[in-house]
């Protein structure tokens, strides 16, 4: 059940972050991937700041923040390579 919940949270987080940053999502698999990597990144950032997220809502917020950071970083890298 934890894997399914993680995929659902990852998909939602990726979709929300895509809408916040570009105005569109990345497709189902793209949203899940961005949300899962963003969840990891958000967890690292939260731990560095001394914050903790608990529960489904906390995990979703942490994943969205991480996914937004991920999209921002990837966007900056793409712009510098062009």
UniProtKB/TrEMBL annotation:
What is one cellular component GO term in this UniProt entry? plasma membrane
Q: Which UniProt keywords apply?
A: Cell membrane, Membrane, Transmembrane, Transmembrane helix
Entry keyword annotation includes Transmembrane helix: yes
Entry keyword Signal: no
Q: Where in the cell is it found?
A: Cell membrane
> Where, by residue number, does the polypeptide cross the bilayer?
26-46, 52-74
- Bilayer disposition of the protein: Multi-pass membrane protein
**Would you say which domain of life the source belongs to?**
Bacteria
Q: Which PANTHER family does the annotation name?
A: UPF0410 PROTEIN YMGE
Family to which the UniProt record says this protein belongs: Belongs to the UPF0410 family.
- The name on file for this protein is Transglycosylase
Q: Which organism is it from?
A: Oceanisphaera arctica
Phylogenetic placement of the source organism: Bacteria, Pseudomonadati, Pseudomonadota, Gammaproteobacteria, Aeromonadales
């Amino acid at each position: 059940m934890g894997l399914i919940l993680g995929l659902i949270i990852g998909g939602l987080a990726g979709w929300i972050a895509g809408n916040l940053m570009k105005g569109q999502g990345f497709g189902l698999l793209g949203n899940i991937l961005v949300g899962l990597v963003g969840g990891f990144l958000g967890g690292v950032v939260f731990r560095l700041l001394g914050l903790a997220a608990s529960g489904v809502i906390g995990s979703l917020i942490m994943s969205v923040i991480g996914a937004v950071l991920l999209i921002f970083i990837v966007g900056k890298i793409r712009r510098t390579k062009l």
